[in-house]
Amino acid sequence: MTIPSKTSRRDFMKVAAAATGGLFLGFNWAGAEAGPLSLVSKASIAAGDINFNSYLSIASDGIITIFSPNPELGQNIKTSFPMIVAEELDADWSKVKVIQAALDTKKFERQLTGGSGAIPHSWERLRKAGATARHMLVETAAKKWSTSASSLTTSDSMVIHPDGRKLSYGELATDAATLAVPADVKLKDRKDFKLIGKAIKNVDNKDIITGKPLFGLDFYREGMLYAMVQRPSGFGMKIKSVDAAAAKAMPGIVDVVTFRNNVAVVGKSTWEVNKARKVLKVEYEAESQIESTADHDKLFKELLDKGEATVRRQDGDVDAAFKSAAKIVRSEYQCPFLPHAPLEPMNFFAHVREDGVELVGPCQLPDSSRNEVAKVLGIAPEKITLELTRLGGGFGRRLKSDYVVEAAEVSSLMKAPVKLIWTREDDMTGGSYRPAVRYRFEAALDKDNNLIGYKLRGVGINAGNCTREDNFPSGAVDNLLIDSVEHKSPITTGAWRAPITNFLAFAEQSFIDEVALAANMDPVQFRLNLLDRAKQKPVGAIKYDIDRMKAVIQLAAEKSNWGKNKNVSQGFSVYFSHRSYVAQVAEVEMKKGAPELKKIIAAADCGIVVNLSGAYQQVRGGVVDGLGHAMYSRLTFKDGAADQKNFNSYRLIRMKEIPEIDVHFVDNGIDPTGLGEPALPPTGGAVANAFFKATGKRLKNQPFVLQDEMKGVNLGEKM
Amino acid sequence: MAKYKLDINGKTYEADVASDTPLLWVLRDNFGLLGAKYGCGIGQCGACTVHLNGVAVKSCSLPVSAIGSKKVVTIEGLSADGEHPVQLAWDEKDVAQCGYCQAGQIMTAVALLNKNPKPSEDQIATAMNGNICRCGTYHRIREAVLLASTKMK
Question: Number of A:B CB contacts under 8 A?
């Protein structure tokens, strides 16, 4: 899917004499094996392709091109979207070609990646895109054969006559496309699905395994400059003075430009820019309060007691419930800031010209990125084109458009095409993190161990509402109070895969384990009983599906032989997020007196599974993500600056540290409800609960490896 | 600046760059070999892994001046069209999510299997531990290495 560029960069390249004396072209983009990344949507689609709708065109040779509009960052949308179109079209999947569409708000709706929402939002639209085209092809064949359309069937890009005659979609496409698009078409019965629910390989596998340039960082344009930006040394700092003389004098440097609170070094290669940046002399001074992690730790405690809280949900009379309680359980949980750390650092290409702006790169909200660039440059969004590369991970970081805007600003200042690159250090220190949060939970049990009161207060740093007040167990408890306090900080935060729930779920599910223990109940039965109670006697609004939640709990319990294997310590957790439900059981075994995490069993209900291979890995990857960050990762601050700057001090999970992970799906036929995030939230709780079962020690703060409770426990290589 | 003649994927390339330029950036910015990725720049994530005389190395931390006449192989030189058994195994196991780390993972796996054609799961984990996959595809990477180990000649 990569078209080699016609341009070359001979000004950079040398013709080198090979050892044998023969001439070798050192490098030439046009003839390069890999070539620079050039986007297909720039090139014309094969002449003769017939467009049926925004998603679909069919060529006379039978090749079906399906445009995938949403950014691909590893959630496998570029395979699953086309599968849905191809399913209803009855296309021969081996002849389907998939192309990443550029931003086009006229053709596509919700062209973004976030909130695990792509499939749920587009499910029907994609099915109709395939089904209407199929309908038109069948109608055309019916006319040609002078028979009724209802007598015809389709399979593998063929319309089939009852007598066995066949017409290929390629033969029918030209005439079919002249028909009116039907307003209403019948969609397939689920039992007739041929592609959906199967394990279909990633359509980009071959390009990935051969190292083709697919990513933003791989994009190249003739004459483009490379730029890196020196941002403030800490949050709350601003530039006092800039001395760029030494940097400007470095080889390969074109210019050093200052904009807003940033200094951009612009040059002819990545390394030269990186080197020049190191001799840049920028002094900073405080602009607002300068914070450290020690301040936050203190603040958390103060605000939990005295903070002005915003009430998020209130049912019954909690004060009365706690006064009458036979037993009260109280516990606090804390999580650190986390950078998103996608493996491909932030980068974007921008070319700001007199007549318009060209943007190319990896982002999750292309429309927002375009609008923000338009605002900063003071031009109409219609003057801006944005093409999407593949994203080397996102995790929410690329929902922010800061780096896109920076690229456009630097291009505008330089009057040249610019590729802006963040280093890993920029990524870790440059902001927009998962916010640090501390929670206090309180539960009141009556003399019969019924949960009669429940309180949750969350204190977050730039976390907005750090609760999810309508989630379980809300609705199952008569007297409940959930509120939150926010501390405003110069440290920037943003959505991080499964925002808020990525940590709240751990805290809540660990606390429920504590309450179940206090009530002398099995933790699974305790949850099921509460759900039954919510069903029979709902308290206030219930915004989760009780039956779906019960079903994943039961499936996880069944698949893990919950409570039946005496040689392992099991921990349970279940969470509802982004419309889907995931329950997990973690299993810890004692090895030579030390606990070892052996296995995690996940049961997921995301409705209909579109691509079994992608979905299975999405859950397993989500569990690995949830486990790794709960176990190892944290970002701390000193005087406004992040302490951890790269992977030598910021720890991500590695292969040695992964347990076995089993994945099971609930088969309920519900339209898809999303899977990009929901598998992550339950993991920390399941693991912590299993460790508690094994050791009697409860992990209340992340990352686990740095907690006192884990002293002496061997959890892989230490950093 | 100095001229460096490099043997990459069996061809001779020449670059006029500063001696401390990491091989990664010479490959990417000068030669248009973009399969090796930048992930951390300090040899911690493995996205930039290439082979130097058959050994897996982190090209982000290897200055061009240290290469000399040693043979460099990048993902582009592993096979003509993705038919190396390790690449085929990566496809069969449908390993990639975002895919950014996978060229580095494959290069590390190939170097492992060339040295140890039948590695145990522990040996695989030890060899692959320097390669981060932020998406968490580790299980499939391990499965793919095991699969490839049954097909390597």
Answer: 219
